[in-house]
Amino acid sequence: MKTLEIIGFKRANLDSAALNEIRDSGNVPCVVYGPGIPEQVHFYSPAILFRDLIYTPEVHLVELNVEGTIIKAVLKEAQFHPVSEALLHADFMAYTEDKAIKFEIPVKIEGSSPGIAKGGKLEFKTRKLKVKGIAGNLPDFISVDISNLDLGKSFKVAELKPEGFEILTSPNVSVVTIGIPRALRGKKGE
């Protein structure tokens, strides 16, 4: 899995006036917590550094560099402004190499479906799957092969065979379905 570095600077003043000042200067207030960190670390980071972390379908582990202290973490939550959609706050969860973490991994479709060749439509039911595992074992994406999906058929989580990690999403959840367009529904029974 890819690792992205985010450089941060500690902040001592946690009141709302200080937060607004940080945001007005083009930075994002952040916090990191979790194993190996005795207490939460409040810091801020330039908003531009979040572009490759948030505005991409890819998943990244994060190496936080807070004034020289390196913390391995994952982005736990990001808060956005309701109108401008500017990043307002980021929460990171630290992890250690020997303990499993929970994470959401994107789904990548592979193969060509005979159902799509017949005029069916690929319908994503879920674009990310919740997984648990050691950070080094987590993949960049989970491949779903749709080569055997005909019209009206679905690929379920239970059909995946993960190696080195566990999928926490229910096995009964459909990942993708080949939808039958209205024009073909009458012809299916013929």
From TrEMBL:
Q: Which top-rank group of organisms is this from?
A: Bacteria
Can you quote a single GO CC term? ribosome
Tell me the ranges covered by the Large ribosomal subunit protein bL25 beta domain, including all copies.
101-182
The Large ribosomal subunit protein bL25 L25 domain is annotated at 10-92
What family is reported? Answer: Belongs to the bacterial ribosomal protein bL25 family. CTC subfamily.
The annotated subunit structure for this chain is: Part of the 50S ribosomal subunit; part of the 5S rRNA/L5/L18/L25 subcomplex. Contacts the 5S rRNA. Binds to the 5S rRNA independently of L5 and L18.
Q: What does this protein do?
A: This is one of the proteins that binds to the 5S RNA in the ribosome where it forms part of the central protuberance.
Q: Which NCBIfam families match?
A: bL25_bact_ctc, PRK05618.2-2
This chain's protein is named: Large ribosomal subunit protein bL25
Q: What is the lineage of its organism?
A: Bacteria, Pseudomonadati, Bacteroidota, Cytophagia, Cytophagales
